[in-house]
Write a structure and sequence with these properties.
single chain, about 260 residues, alpha+beta, two-stranded antiparallel ribbon, two-stranded antiparallel sheet, 9 helices
Length: about 260
């Protein structure tokens, strides 16, 4: 797909820029990259035009130092510009945040990742009892639960409680025996979100905010669609006959850091 090629070319370009412009040595003796920001801007804009990308933001860091931070294009159809603080829907990258939240509870001894999920979700009762009696938290984290990709294609409605969503999954069956095969499925992480809520006694969004965003100083990140919109969330776009149109994106609470 073109967007994948664009991302790859962009990463390669940044490496080339760093090499061509060399480094300097700071007073502390550390080498620092010297970036040609004009070349970066020209490249980003040309790739946006080629890929029909309405807006994006980039950050270039070296160690703990921010070297370059800039927004490009528009965040919404009304022409609102993208800034470095504009939140975008993160999609499945949010699974990493969910995994981090789970491991916080593991480190505290509140979750055992090698016991069946039935221990943490007594209300989750699919007709196929192997789902809760054999699948462990570790297998959900690793996408080796046996739950199919297709089973994870149904998105929760915005603001639908995780418990309610899981109660609806009465016909869920394992595609493979738990632990035997890798198959990516978003439902694994919906279930993990519910485990977080049950064990912590907090909503998913509150736990992520308190245990992930605040400690990491992610001040423009949100785990709730309403808060994201209030924070300036960029429009989602859909491709139709080669043209990009803003559209309503179905999102769940874990998708907008």
């Amino acid at each position: 797909m073109f967007w994948k090629k664009s991302i790859s070319r962009f990463i390669l370009f940044i490496i080339v820029v760093a090499a061509v412009n060399g480094t300097t040595v700071s007073a502390s003796g550390k080498e620092e990259l010297v970036l040609d920001t004009e070349k970066i801007d020209d490249f980003v804009r040309s790739e946006m035009k080629a890929g029909d990308i309405p807006g994006l933001a980039i950050a270039i860091v070296q160690g703990d130092k921010m070297l370059y931070l800039k927004g490009y294009g528009r965040a919404r159809a009304d022409g609102t510009p993208v800034t470095p603080q504009t939140p975008f829907i993160l999609g499945s990258i949010s699974k990493g945040l969910t995994g981090l939240a789970v491991m916080r509870l593991v480190d505290r001894g509140e979750i055992d990742i090698d016991v069946p999920i039935k221990k943490y979700l007594p209300y989750f009762r699919p007709k196929d009892t192997k789902v809760t009696e054999t699948v462990t938290v570790r297998q959900l984290l690793n996408h080796t639960s046996g739950i199919s990709n297709y089973s994870g294609s149904k998105l929760r409605k915005p603001e639908e409680p995780l418990e309610e969503f899981l109660r609806e999954q009465v016909n869920l069956k394992l595609q493979h025996p738990a632990g035997e095969n890798f198959e990516y499925s978003s439902l694994n992480y919906d279930i993990l979100g519910a485990v977080i809520e049950t064990v912590s006694g907090k909503s998913y969004k509150d736990f992520i905010k308190e245990e992930v965003f605040i400690p990491l100083e992610m001040d423009q990140s949100y785990a709730n669609i309403k808060e994201g919109v209030e924070g300036g969330l960029a429009d989602g776009y859909r491709n139709l006959f080669g043209l990009e149109f803003p559209g309503k994106t179905k999102v769940v609470e874990s998708m907008i850091p």
